[in-house]
């Protein structure tokens, strides 16, 4: 069978519009397509491939577990899931873990837990969930409604109720909405899809305080920011604010689908037997690979290296901006970096992505005005240099067009 981009249009549901490039092989931070053209990967599968492509530790874990046991129903537990859960609770605020297959499912579990806790402890009136405009929490109907981007949730009929949205980094807007009827406040400790927006210290500490004052749970969606992405194991660790519930996915599996909800024993007891579940969640293959990824990332060397690479990325982008004057702002934390286009290039982030791809470097967008970079956490310095040189050529082609 000949596999081409045209085959996508023939056989796939048209909710995506993928590039003409079809990658077939990857190693480290480099990828090769069907024509054997090489690309440097600054996208990382949208912050998923935290150790690049085909990292030996992950390949080894997959092969080893693949010859042992692949799947069990949750009528039984398994060793990789228990080992991974123990490492997660030992390394975080959490005491209990629930495994799912994706970030959306981890967030879904977090929201269901919050509602169940509020019903059990406070009664039927405490159902309100507050999240933030431009937030993104997944594509299930519950999570996409909690996410603050109506374009993703409109057009599917009646939405789940009692969900409202405040403005990120605006504590007053949250104060206007929160009350004793609020069961949870959900946010990303650095907004990803919304434009790579870090929280101010005043905002994030104020959110925690308002939750405490109103007996509301604080849920951190760390699907994109977690497992080393910001240079901390989880972003909350650099903010000095602990959530009550945390969702993790993406980098957790290093490319293998897995999600996790982390919480305390006191809250976890409200998800009693039968209240929630997942056929594949916590399966041995996913947990074995995730354990290898987690062990590799959760070291001082790798986490310090993320911060070192952040400085290089931002400096290179600043140098490009000095030459071509295309960015209004360069921001982010760790290797979750956003370059916001200035007024001359408003709405053209995808044009820059395409121009960079033509030069052999893969990047992302975060909305119409922000170019996003989420490379491997261990990307070699030489690949940053070469990738940025290619990205600059793409920028030059747009500016000089």
UniProtKB/TrEMBL annotation:
UniProt keyword annotations, A-Z: Amino-acid biosynthesis, Aminotransferase, Arginine biosynthesis, Cytoplasm, Pyridoxal phosphate, Transferase
N6-(pyridoxal phosphate)lysine PTM positions: 250
EC number(s) on file: 2.6.1.11
Locations listed in the record: Cytoplasm
Cofactors named for this entry: pyridoxal 5'-phosphate
CDD domains cross-referenced by the UniProt entry: OAT_like
UniProt: pyridoxal 5'-phosphate binding residues: 103-104, 136, 221-224, 279
Gene Ontology MF, one: N2-acetyl-L-ornithine:2-oxoglutarate 5-aminotransferase activity
GO cellular component: cytoplasm
NCBIfam families: arg_catab_astC, argD, PRK01278.1, PRK05093.1, PRK12381.1
Record family assignment: Belongs to the class-III pyridoxal-phosphate-dependent aminotransferase family. ArgD subfamily.
Name used for this protein in its record: Acetylornithine aminotransferase
Species: Psychrosphaera ytuae
Encoding gene per record: argD
């Amino acid at each position: 069978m000949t596999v081409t981009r045209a085959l996508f249009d023939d056989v796939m549901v048209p909710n995506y519009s993928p590039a003409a490039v079809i990658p077939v092989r990857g190693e480290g931070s480099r990828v090769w397509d069907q024509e054997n053209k090489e690309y440097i990967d600054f996208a990382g599968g949208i912050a998923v491939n935290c150790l690049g492509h085909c990292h030996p530790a992950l390949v080894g874990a997959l092969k080893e577990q693949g010859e042992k046991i692949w799947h069990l129903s949750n009528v039984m537990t398994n060793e990789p899931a228990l080992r991974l859960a123990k490492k997660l609770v030992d390394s975080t605020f959490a005491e209990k873990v629930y495994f799912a297959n994706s970030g959306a499912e981890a967030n879904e579990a977090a929201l269901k837990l919050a509602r169940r806790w509020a019903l059990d402890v406070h009664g039927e009136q405490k159902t309100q969930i507050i999240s933030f405009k431009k937030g993104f929490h997944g594509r299930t109907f519950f999570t996409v409604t909690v996410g603050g981007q109506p374009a993703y949730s409109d057009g599917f009929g009646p939405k789940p109720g009692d969900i409202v949205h405040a403005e990120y980094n605006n504590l007053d807007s949250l104060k206007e909405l929160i009350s004793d009827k609020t069961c949870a406040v959900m946010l990303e400790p650095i907004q990803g899809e919304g434009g790579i927006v870090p929280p101010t210290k005043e905002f994030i500490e104020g959110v925690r305080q308002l939750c405490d004052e109103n007996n509301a749970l604080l849920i951190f969606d760390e699907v994109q920011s977690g497992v080393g992405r910001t240079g901390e194991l989880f972003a909350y660790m650099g903010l000095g604010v602990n959530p009550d519930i945390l969702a993790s996915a993406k980098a957790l599996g290093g490319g293998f689908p897995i999600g996790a909800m982390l919480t305390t024993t006191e809250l976890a007891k409200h998800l009693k037997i039968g209240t929630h579940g997942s056929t594949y969640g916590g399966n041995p293959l996913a947990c074995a690979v995730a354990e290898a990824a987690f062990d590799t990332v959760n070291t001082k060397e790798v986490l310090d290296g993320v911060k070192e690479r952040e400085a290089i990325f931002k400096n290179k982008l600043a140098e490009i901006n000095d030459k071509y004057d295309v960015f209004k702002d360069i921001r982010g934390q760790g290797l979750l970096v956003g370059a916001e286009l200035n007024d001359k290039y408003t709405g053209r982030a995808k044009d820059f992505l395409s121009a960079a791809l033509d030069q052999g470097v893969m990047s992302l967008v975060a909305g119409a005005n922000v170019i996003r970079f989420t490379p491997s956490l261990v990307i070699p310095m030489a690949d940053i240099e070469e990738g940025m040189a290619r990205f600059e050529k793409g920028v030059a082609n747009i500016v000089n067009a």
